[in-house]
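New here. Invent one.

***
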Amino acid sequence: MSVVEEAVMRFGTTALAVLVVSFVVLAGVVPATVVAQSDSETSGTVVVEEGETVEDVEAFAGTVVIEGTVTNDVEVVGGDVRIDGEVGGDVESVGGSVTIAGTVDGDLESAGGSVTIAEGATVGGNVGIGAGSVTVDGTIEGDAEIGADTIQLGDDAAIEGDLRYGGDLEGNTDAVAGEIEEDPSIGVDVAPSIPPIASWLFSAYALVLNLLLGAALLALFPRFSDGIADRVGRSPVRSGLAGLGVLVGVPILLLAMAITVIGIPFTIIGAFAFAFVVWIGIVYGRFAVAAWLLSLVDVEHRWLALVVGMVGGALLAQVPYVGSPINFVVFLLGLGALAAGLYSHWRAGRQRDQEPRGEIDAGGPASD
């Protein structure tokens, strides 16, 4: 018997299938490249190709590249944001790296690890930037307000209005046609409208992922999913304590495995697997709590519970102070009930192994 076959017999097909479903869902919703034909995109990469024209771009992605023309506004969050083309309106961007190498007719508000207005780039309106480092080597036709650890004005920089800054200003200060004013109160949060955009896009993206994973789990494992909800409803304290034990115990076990060189690969694989289990725990927790709340008003509908749970959890996450702690408790409930369900399947598999062959054949294969 191979290792895989033994794992299936001992651990149960449901446990392994849940992890496979997680990988499939994640891979299916993050394509490698998406061309921004519509106004709004959520993807691994969003590109407006050279020669392409769109009205607006709202994107949450690993990489956002605009080489063509956007006639109105651009609102993007990405690991790497680059504008090489032309934007007819305003640009609001958040990114690990933001580069403006084309033309922005309106205002620019940006936050990132590094923000660059490259040589030959033009911003027709005002500029508000908060970043770790900022480089200006292009033209700003309005005023600029910049908060950064280091602000570098290049030889080809031109700021036609005033410059208010916080941080270390270096380079060609003659590039500023107006007044230069140092204001220590200006920090990296100089662009106040950016965080709400980032928060909204991230929340929407997470909601879609959670709904897709939840739908896959309910469709493939309806009885197992109902069992999760039932465990949370019947034994919330036990489920929560079990979830806390798993959350603390598994990382300790993985660290113990990493002590030996042989155990390092298993630790890496285990860490990824545990991350997916945590994600599943979040989804099951919200689903189970929603199912319990609906049962209080005599509504028994797993798909409605899924939608209510995912939307409710996303909305709760936006509530200051209390939202995150409540979501954490819900997550512990789901993780604990999931662990208990998988353990029950594992025990059932062991019992089937110990039964006489004739009894196993007579009983038939275990179902979900």
Q: What stands out?
A: Residues 210 and 283 are 6 Å apart (CA to CA). Residues 3-24+194-363 form one domain. The mean pLDDT is 80. The chain is about 50% helix and 25% strand.
